[in-house]
Design brief:
This protein has 3 helices and 4 strands. The protein is of the alpha+beta class and 86 residues long. Strands 1-2-4-3 form a 4-stranded antiparallel beta sheet, with helices on one face. The two termini are 17 Å apart. The mean pLDDT is 90.
Length: 86
């Protein structure tokens, strides 16, 4: 899992992030907070309210995906990349 989306209450997305960058994002954007019910060192809740540009959000989503993908085994990555399921 690399992202959680809340479409009902706050329209936010929870993304994984390297710890140093997570702190910088929280200090830079009011819409970025430590993730609720997640490891706050590695996860951010990002309120989708227009205060963060779409290009930045896309980069943050890609970063989260890459962090999770890099922790997978070679077999798991190969399955994802080929579209196969075990």
């Amino acid at each position: 899992m690399f992202a959680l989306i809340d479409l009902e209450k706050s329209f936010s997305i929870t993304l994984k992030c390297d710890p140093e960058n997570a702190v910088v994002l929280r200090e830079t954007y009011e819409a970025v907070k430590p993730a609720y019910h997640m490891d706050k060192k590695h996860w951010n809740d990002i309120l989708i309210n227009g205060s963060i540009q779409d290009e930045c959000l896309i980069k943050l989503i890609d970063h989260s995906y890459d962090l999770v993908k890099d922790k997978l085994t070679r077999k798991e990555r190969t399955c994802i990349e080929s579209g196969q399921q075990d």
